[in-house]
Amino acid sequence: MIFPFISVIIPIYNSEDDLPDLLKCLQSQTYPREQVEYLLVNNNSSDQTGSILEQAVIESKGSGFPLVVLTENQIQSSYAARNLGIKNARYDLLVFTDADCRPSYQWLEEIVKPFSDADIGIVAGEIFALTGNSILEKYAERREILSQKFLLEHPFSPYGQTANLAIRKAAFEKVGLFRPYLSTGGDADICWRILRETQWQLAYAPTAVISHRHRSTIKSFRSQFQRYGRSNRYLHELHGCDLQRNFTSSELIYRLGRWLLKELPKNTLKLLFGKADIVDLLATPLDLIGFQSRSQGQSTAKLPEKAKEIEWL
């Protein structure tokens, strides 16, 4: 296999708990170190992230680990942080992930393979769940909430999440960088701009795997789906894609009634015989919480004028 030069870009914000494991995963990559650079962009963190990164840089000099630490303090946005990484990247293939992700050892080897086809401008890897103990984490894993395979079937246009995405730098040169003031939806936005404004295509690399920690509390779960709803609204205003249908009280009554009268008794019986678990019992209420939260986020969101701005190389 030919190993092209690549730049890995990771925005970091208040990630003191995630950084040690992330750095271990990066250091364990099978990709040749002389062919890669890792750019970690501290986005105005207020915890011990800065100190951890400083120590990592010191240690990398002795180990030969190609680590570069950058700081984005002007704009509080993961997209602004990624843009700074892109501007400082030395190589033509740019690979993105996040601080709360855990790349598999062969992640980089697998995600660059589709680029052997000159028509491919974007590659989306797969996202699995980190094993969790809470009901919400198990529910999210069961529903494959973050799986890229569903996004590749998006009715408007396929896209991949920046948690596991690779893009040619030349594509950014043609369509611009991420919108730095956009708070959510930037991954779909950049993919759609590239696919609509250039001839490059998107490929799926299911063996390029990262694992991601799911939300473990109702508050964070609701916040996640509200953000998905805001993303729907923003992308509708930017690209004209359809909005999600609204959550209604009549649907709530129908779905809860069906759950109480049919699904719950059936799954409770299965639970007693070891053929179901607590996630099966609570799946419908959790579906409804997610649906209602997404609908709320979509209905209350308004795209800020500044979020329409595109930064350029």
From TrEMBL:
Glycosyltransferase 2-like domain residues: 7-175
Keywords linked to the UniProt accession: Transferase
Single Gene Ontology MF annotation: transferase activity
UniProt keyword Cell cycle, yes or no: no
InterPro entries per the UniProt record, alphabetical: Glyco_trans_2-like, Glycosyltransf_2, Nucleotide-diphossugar_trans
Gene3D superfamilies: Spore Coat Polysaccharide Biosynthesis Protein SpsA, Chain A
Pfam families: Glycos_transf_2
Stated name of the protein: Glycosyltransferase
Organism: Microcystis wesenbergii Mw_QC_S_20081001_S30D
